[in-house]
Design brief:
Blueprint (H helix, E strand, L loop, with lengths): L6 E8 L3 H11 L11 E8 L2 E8 L2 H21 L5
Antiparallel strand pairs: 1-3, 2-3
Helix pairs in contact: 1-2
């Protein structure tokens, strides 16, 4: 995704194992594109044991809303996925 919006942030979440990171990233995958709106968009990627959510927005209010939404989605993915490898 290319940055075409005025504001950007990257949320990074580290996990004890690569498998745990994969479970969280896979749970988030279907949400990419589904909760975007006219003022913000997001992407999710995983590298090793880290999951990164990149939020792009036209203004700071939309950026804050995007960060809040994705933070909640990550928290839910962490709670519902398997905890032990």
């Amino acid at each position: 995704m290319t940055a075409t919006r005025a504001h950007e942030t990257v949320l990074s979440f580290s996990y004890p194992t690569e498998r745990r990171a994969r479970v969280v990233a896979d749970a988030l995958g279907p949400e990419v594109g589904e909760i975007d709106d006219a003022r913000s968009t997001a992407s999710v990627d995983r590298e090793g044991d880290a999951v990164r959510v990149r939020v792009l927005a036209d203004d700071l209010v939309a950026l804050r809303a995007g960060v809040n939404s994705w933070s909640r989605l990550v928290a839910v993915a962490e709670r519902v996925g398997p905890k032990h490898d």
